[in-house]
Amino acid sequence: MILQSSDAVRHVARHRRLHHRVAFGYFLALGFHVGVRAVQLANLATALRLDAQMLGFAGTVAAASGIVTLLVGGYVADRLGRRLVLGIGFAGTAASFIWQARIHSLSGLMGSFVLYGLCCSFIDLGANAIGSDYEHCHGVGAMTGLHAGFSLGAMLGALATGVALWCGVGFRTVYLGLAAVLAAVAVGSAVAPLPSRTAEPGHRHRRLGLAGLRIPAVGFAIALITVTFFGDGALENFLAVYLHTTLASGPLLIGVGIGSYHLASLTGRLLASRVLSRWQERTTITAAGLLAAAGLAISVTAPSSGVAIAGLLLVGLAIAPVVPSALSLAGRSAPGQSAQAVAAATAAGYSAFIISPIVVGAIANRTSLRMGLALLITTALADAALASRWPTPDKSPSQS
């Protein structure tokens, strides 16, 4: 009996490690493409002669397209499984980058960004749904640690792209290489072992719909994610352009700058897993918002790239645990409908991705990109204010 029990424990531990590697891998791939794309935007804007407002509008188009798939994606993921959502997401996103490698017109840019938004949101949803499944399946809180995989991937993608461009590789060739990576992950999704999905009786396959907004913790997570994504959307669309045009940085330094930001985010998420096991989420996220505001103030007033990157390091370190903690809260607050809760929170957050590029781009065109990005100091302070009202009592599982 003791031997059988020991074998069972080892079997469970083995599956837990396997499921964690798979979930971490999806976040790694998601982050990798974000890092590559962020560095590439400066070259894409130069090639197509886009000003800040037009680049912001293109980012808004992509985000708006993403909301379309997120509105139905959560139900599809709960009804038909995560594997289908991930396969479509990675394959479609790969196709969008093949298209971007070939565009020479504004209409082509908009078309490729629509396809990107439609499919990338499936990757985002699928990865976070699997993270929530892992937490439920193994009884641990792991979302912050899994999001560290996103930060690691983004760092690697940004650095690799900066080095490739510095070595003379064309930015269109970089897009094709990225598409090949994503296509390989799409194929692998067909056979990857995924954590089981659990549901309470009576909850399986029901639509969460607007009822999710009446769950206080889900509504709170939506508010926090929306505010945070406003800043994320602006940095994702304009950080490379800010380093290139305002601070006269070359492609290698842009890659290092964006990679350093994601390295700091990776460090922040790894540290946050330990911090959250000792401090309440309310305290951790409140402090994160205040530190991020300080880092943004340093970055937007920086006289040189080095000082700006130093400020970005503080931002990345501070803001790292906010979104994964909020998504974990949403997922565990809707038993049996975790993917739909995650989708609702993510879709609401994408509304900020729609607003922030066009708002920051408009301010930049009328004043300067420094002034446009300075708006993000306010959103970081709003994160701190919201976090001070984190739902209590905190019954989240221990972080790992």
What does the model show?
The chain is mostly helical and 400 residues long. 81% of the residues lie in helices and 0% in strands. It has 13 helices and no strands.
Short descriptors:
400 residues; mainly alpha; disordered C terminus
Q: What is the rounded distance between the termini?
A: 30 Å
Q: List segments where confidence is low: pLDDT < 50 over at least 5 consecutive residues.
A: 199-208, 393-400
CATH topology (level 3) name:
Growth Hormone, Chain: A
> Could you say what the CATH architecture is?
Up-down Bundle
Could you give a short account of the major beta sheet? none
Spell out the CATH superfamily: MFS general substrate transporter like domains
- Measured by DSSP, the beta-strand proportion falls in under 5%
Number of domains: 1
Helix content: over 70%
**Oligomeric state of the chains present here:** single chain
Structural class: mainly alpha
Work out the helix count.
Answer: 13
Shape: globular
Give the tally of β-strands: 0
What is the typical, i.e. mean, pLDDT? 85
Per CATH, the class reads Mainly Alpha
Rg from Cα: 20 Å
Along the chain, the helix and strand elements come as HHHHHHHHHHHHH
